[in-house]
Amino acid sequence: MLVPVLSLASAALALICGLLLPWTITPIVIGLTYAIAALGVSVMVRAGQVSFGHAMYACISAYTVAFLARAFPQLDAIVLIVAGAAASLVCSAIIGVFIVRYRGIFFGMLNLALSMVLYALLGKLYHLTGGTDGIRLNRPEILGMALERGPFEIALLVLTLLLSLVLAWWVQRYFRSGSGEALSGIKTNETRLEYLGFSAWYVMWKGYLLSAAVVGFSGSLLALMQGLVTPDIGAWLRSGEFVFITILGGAGHAAGAFLGAFGFEAVKLVSAAWFPGLWQFLLGFTLVVVIFIFPTGFVGQLMRRKRTPARA
């Protein structure tokens, strides 16, 4: 019961901060898109598989939003967000057919290889994608309302917060379901899972679809917030940041992605402001410290303290 209350309180605090300090809306929304993407990555981490190329699904979603917004300017932002996530879902259903047959480093590297192929194509097909310059988006309507930039950003902040809560609830519900427990079984003992009558391939494939769809939502929101879609959204460095956030927050609970994103953004902003030449070093040092002190991430440490009975 504590986690839902804290989640709602955090969402309310972020909304109040955005309303009182409009300049914070952009970093809050972008930070939440990173958290949503890490939430998708954490689904695969539950199976013991780390993808170094999941940013390609954020990229697929973002370019879908850009293409649709350019071809059909009358489309609502809600439709664009759902369409972007649906495109990621469809692509993952095809890619996942052979990707989920692999485990460990092969799983991670195959995702990375595919993401780099996509990154290269987007940069080369200038007449379609604008190359490295990307595609600019005109501001779409939200729920049929044409808004100026200020009100549009506030509406997008509210939409992102609501979507974050819904996706976190959805993923956590999946973790506690039979499919989620079976996915965890792949990490512990895949052979035993097969003997129990489950298809490890099918369990992984369903998890992969959920993972890609959640990451796809982050790409749609990022495209609308930035108003510009470039191949960098699918770069391997972006995938590495998603993995960084997932490890930092922990994959034991859906809240871990948001705790990790908060830690990631806090360290990055503070170090970039005070130590502009060392911010990447400080990020890496923070991850090393967290791994040594909290090997299960922030959320793992919180869950362990919750299970530990207080001493009299």
Strand arrangement across the biggest beta sheet = 1-2
Query: Any idea what the shape is?
Result: globular
Category by helix and strand content: mainly alpha
Instruction: Give the beta-strand count.
Output: 2
Low confidence ranges? none
Average pLDDT taken over every residue: 86
Number of contiguous helices: 13
| Helical amount | over 70%
**Largest sheet properties:** 2 strands, antiparallel
List the secondary-structure elements in sequence, H or E.
HHHHHHEHHHEHHHH
Give the termini distance in whole angstroms: 24 Å
Output the radius of gyration. 19 Å
Strand content range: under 5%
Task: Characterize the structure shown.
- With 312 residues, this protein is mainly alpha-helical.
- Helix content is 76%, strand content 1%.
- The protein is built from 13 helices and two strands; from the N terminus they run ααααααβαααβαααα.
- The chain has helices at 2-20, 25-45, 55-71, 77-99, 104-124, 126-129, 149-176, 178-195, 200-226, 236-249, 255-274, 279-293, 297-307; strands spanning 135-136, 228-229.
- Helix 2 runs antiparallel to helix 9 (200-226).
- The model has no long low-confidence stretch (mean pLDDT 86).
Question: Keywords, please?
Answer:
mainly alpha; 1% strand; 312 residues; single chain; 13 helices
Note the topology.
Layout: H1 2-20, H2 25-45, H3 55-71, H4 77-99, H5 104-124, H6 126-129, E1 135-136, H7 149-176, H8 178-195, H9 200-226, E2 228-229, H10 236-249, H11 255-274, H12 279-293, H13 297-307
Antiparallel strand pairs: 1-2
Helix pairs in contact: 1-7, 2-7, 2-9, 2-10, 2-11, 3-4, 3-9, 4-9, 7-8, 7-9, 8-9, 10-11, 10-13, 11-12, 11-13
